[in-house]
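Regression test case RT-17, inverse folding.

Input:
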C-alpha cells in the first residue's frame, strides 16, 4: 500500500470513478488568539493498493497536539479494496469533512493515518500567532 495523497484542505470531493478533487491544500493557520476555530475544512486521502492487498481495510485517523493529546475524536473507518480482472493496482479515495475544528493553542499539531493497525503517514498543521512576524511564512 502506498499513500499517494494525504492533505488538509479547504474542500475535497471524491467520485465513484476514482477522481479526488482538492481545493486549497494548507499546513498552517494564523490567528490573533487561541483557541482557534476553523469553520470548515477537509482531509483528502488517496491510497494505492496492489492486487495482493485486496479485501477490507481499516483506516484510523488521529489528530494530536505536540504533547500527544487528541484534539479531535479518533476516526475509525473501513473501505473495501476490490480489483477489476485486468488491473494490478487500484486506488481508494477518502474525504473527511471537518466542521468547527478547534485548536486550543498555538503550536504544531499532527494528523496521523493508520491502515490495518500500521502507521502509514503523518502531516503537520502549524497554528501561529498573526501578531508574530517571524512566524508568518
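Golden output:
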Amino acid at each position: 500500500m502506498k499513500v499517494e495523497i494525504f492533505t488538509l484542505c479547504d474542500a475535497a470531493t471524491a467520485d465513484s470513478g476514482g477522481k479526488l478533487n482538492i481545493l486549497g491544500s494548507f499546513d498552517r493557520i494564523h490567528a490573533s488568539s487561541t483557541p482557534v476555530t476553523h469553520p470548515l475544512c477537509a482531509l483528502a486521502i488517496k491510497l494505492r493498493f496492489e492486487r495482493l492487498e485486496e479485501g477490507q481495510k481499516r483506516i484510523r485517523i488521529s489528530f494530536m497536539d505536540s504533547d500527544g493529546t487528541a484534539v479531535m475524536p479518533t476516526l475509525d473507518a473501513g473501505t473495501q479494496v476490490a480489483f477489476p480482472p485486468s488491473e494490478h493496482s487500484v486506488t481508494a479515495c477518502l474525504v473527511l469533512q471537518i466542521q468547527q475544528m478547534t485548536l486550543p493553542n498555538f503550536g504544531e499539531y499532527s494528523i496521523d493515518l493508520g491502515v490495518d493497525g500500521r502507521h502509514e503517514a503523518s502531516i503537520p498543521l502549524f497554528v501561529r500567532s498573526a501578531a508574530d512576524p517571524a512566524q508568518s511564512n
